[in-house]
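Look over this record as teaching material.
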Amino acid sequence: MGGDDDKITGLYERHALSFDRERGRSLFERPWLDRFTALIRPQGTILDIGCGMGEPISAALIADGFRLTGIDSSQTLIDLCRKRFAEHSWIVSDMRTLALARTFDGIIAWHSFFHLDPDSQRRMFPIFAAHARPGAPLMFTAGPSHGVAIGEYHGEPLYHASLDAEEYRSLLAECGFEVVSHVVEDPDCGGATVWLARRRA
């Protein structure tokens, strides 16, 4: 730790309320969420890694009848989740050290995992596996190819990184996941590069 990805925690905490105001709620991600939830039993449990303030992703999953556990490094964002969805579980945690000692019917890391540096991303796959029940889907967003991209949010640098597709496939396979779908820069999802995999039963 101590790299550029460490700065993300402070950035989202400093700008938590602005992020809450500015994050779109139109849910253009719905087709991918439907593919994800089609692989989960009704009223199953979902772990949302990097849940932010719970909207719109967690909120949509809750509306679909699932039980949510959300983790985020920002105390302010987690407090918003607790206020809005008090019947679900919200935890302040760094995904890189996540160890909840339980498994879930599905895991999602939407627009969060890609803030980690490449080595931290590699170390996440055993963490995903440790929290996934047999048959559980895992969905995350990444970059379109190997590299680092520095964006900007409220005048501060916003770090993103990605491995290449073959390495993601290899890491998933090593940790017991099979790729269900992978779309690079999906034009119907805001240009997101999406991975949907499933833990082998």
Notes: The CA atoms of residues 43 and 66 lie 4 Å apart. Helices lie at 6-14, 16-22, 30-37, 57-63, 75-84, 118-130, 165-174. The two ends are 33 Å apart (CA to CA).
